[in-house]
């Protein structure tokens, strides 16, 4: 199978779902579109909690000790959040969305476009399937995980675009860049992360998705993009503890 085909299919489903969602969205009342977004927020919360609970996985505990996994995730969130805040990731991502809205959109309200772009980008790119699937594809192990993610993202993009418009389609660019880079990493570096490191990454990603769900449910506008460096910090902290324990 061609390396990278999983990301190509994923981008295609996001674009197709976004077009369909916009077409459907114009035929739905504002109340119905809000309800669709709330439903998507609840489903995102369910997926996020499931991912976050992997912090108790035996593989991770065996590598770093029983009391360390939660501390690793905490440390990753704090260090990653401070780093992302200093680098202004959230502001830069919103700025990119605003530029794309000005460049390509002809009818959407700017704030709606940006919210659609940012929220969809986070949902499509933060989950464990993004990194695990892209790495597996790059390693030549197949793109089955990304094909599954493509189906999920396709349905999610319909729901997003029905409520938030063309900004969701713009998130396909982020999917292409993020998953493309991770696929390249897998192809160039081989098996990058041991299982314990991947588990820590998945648990941290689950927490970030909870932040996305809270945004979608309009509970709190957490700057999730500023927390993205935590996905890099978590495996590094695992490696640090593994070295110390050995």
What's the topology here?
Blueprint lengths: L4 H21 L4 H23 L5 H7 L3 H20 L1 H16 L5 H17 L1 H11 L5 H21 L2 H23 L5 H22 L13 H16 L1
Keywords: Membrane, Transmembrane, Transmembrane helix
InterPro entries: DUF554 (IPR007563)
Pfam family, one: DUF554
Question: How would you portray this structure in words?
Answer:
This is DUF554 domain-containing protein. InterPro entries: DUF554. This protein has 246 residues and is an all-alpha fold. It is built from eleven helices and no strands. Helix 2 (30-52) runs antiparallel to helix 8 (144-164) and helix 4 packs across helix 10. The termini are far apart.
Brief descriptors of the model:
246 residues, mainly alpha, 80% helix, 0% strand
What's the short story on this structure?
The protein is mostly helical and 246 residues long. It has 11 helices and no strands.
SSE series:
HHHHHHHHHHH
Distance between the termini: 39 Å
Proportion of residues in β-strands: under 5%
Characterize the overall form.
Answer: globular
* Rg over CA atoms: 18 Å
Please tally the β strands and state the result: 0
Helix content: over 70%
What is the mean pLDDT?
A: 84
Structural class category:
mainly alpha
């Amino acid at each position: 199978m061609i390396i990278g085909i999983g990301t190509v299919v994923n981008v295609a489903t996001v674009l197709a779902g976004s077009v369909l969602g916009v077409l459907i969205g114009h035929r739905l009342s504002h109340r119905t579109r809000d309800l669709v977004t709330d439903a998507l927020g609840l489903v995102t919360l369910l997926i996020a909690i499931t991912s976050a609970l992997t912090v108790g996985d035996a593989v991770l505990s065996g590598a770093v000790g029983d009391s360390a996994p939660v501390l690793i995730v905490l440390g990753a969130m704090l260090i990653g959040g401070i780093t992302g805040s200093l680098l202004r990731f959230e502001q830069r991502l919103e700025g990119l969305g605003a530029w794309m809205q000005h460049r390509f959109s002809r009818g959407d309200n700017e704030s709606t476009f940006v919210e659609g772009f940012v929220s969809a980008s986070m949902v499509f790119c933060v989950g464990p399937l993004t990194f695990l699937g892209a790495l597996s594809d790059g390693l030549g192990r197949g793109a089955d995980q990304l094909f599954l993610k493509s189906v999920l993202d396709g349905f999610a993009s319909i729901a997003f675009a029905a409520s938030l418009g063309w900004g969701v389609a713009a998130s396909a660019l982020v999917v292409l860049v993020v998953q493309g880079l991770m696929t390249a990493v897998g192809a160039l570096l081989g098996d990058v992360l041991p299982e314990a490191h991947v588990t820590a990454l998945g648990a941290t990603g689950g927490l970030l998705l909870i932040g996305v769900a809270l945004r979608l449910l309009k509970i709190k506008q957490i700057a999730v993009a500023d927390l993205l460096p935590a996905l890099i910090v978590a495996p590094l902290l695992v490696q640090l503890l593994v070295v110390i324990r050995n």
